[in-house]
Specification:
about 400 residues; alpha/beta; 10-stranded mixed β-sheet; 16 helices; disordered N terminus
Amino acid sequence: MGALTVRVPAGAGAPVARERQISKALAKAASRLEHVAPETDSVRTGQNRGAGVGVFGSRKGWWTVAGLAAVAGAGALVARRRTSGGRTAVGPDRSDVFSTPRLEPEILSVVSADGAELHVRAYGNPDAEPIVFSHGWVCSTEFWNPQVNALAEKYRVITYDQRGHGRSGIGSAPLSPDLLADDLAAVLAATVTEGHKAEIVGHSMGGMSIVAWARRYPEQVEKYAGSILLASTGTDKLVAETTVVPLPQRFPRLPVPVGKAVLGSTLPMPASPLTARAIQYIALAPGSARDEVEFCEHIVNACPRQTRGGWGAALSTLDITDGLKNLTVPTTVLVGTADRLTPPSHARRLAQLLDDDHHLERLIVLPGIGHMTSVEAVDEFNAEIERLRALT
């Protein structure tokens, strides 16, 4: 089967009309998801999902690739069957994975450099080793429920709503990577106590926040961080390398103005089966389970559309690659092969640049996993968090 092509109508037109044309094109792609899923979903079957997980070490250490034979038994345990609706059915009940954390958090209000108030939650023993989580675009602290539920009884788990997301204010300053840096710096100063260093985990825009922070505050990296996990993220070329809108070979790259219009759209996203399919198409793998899709759908739909559009436009021209050189602590890069928003090309580039400076800990490639790696591959994601925490 050939690539799914989305044809975006040409012509200038009014901004709102243009947004609607682009949205219709994306919706058309999402509605055709079920027709392309059987082919692409082969990587999420019991034989293949999890099998062949690539774990590549830095030049100073080792590298291994776990083969099919080594993990065939584990692969069989995660077999999923496809339903006619384009999602997969769930076997065992995993409601405890995605549910509201059992532990009551300490709620903190942290003020960023420009006066914006950030909503912060701290779980677990205040004297335990800290792990700070920074979520991605259009998400919230709830995105980290699978990690809080698994880790908060052992570690001090700290989550926060990115500016404009969840319960955090958006402030009055123009949205930019520097604000992401300021916000993370404020959270770290308020939550990482003397004598401790945190593992800092960032997904998507959260990973960009970490790199932006290292770029803006290089002196803080070794003060606050003992290790870093950059998941499903990039530092530049976000529009050029996205595969959300597959293009014919004669147009190998999405034009930046079109990409900016898509990312910056503020059109409503009412909850509906079409919206759910669109979210799965854009953010998750074709074979993702129903509970994974519903969990992400609930979070994404809760994001204010002005926040979605504002940050989407701000990230469309992002270039913070020079901040990677300041990540002077062990850093793992993690990506899913089915990630359309930040495809593996981003992870490979990040890993290469980190390895050039001898700070790459691992590059982990998860077969058949989409952009929401912490939701779609909870066990693998959490295992790497704990491994990195042990290095600190």
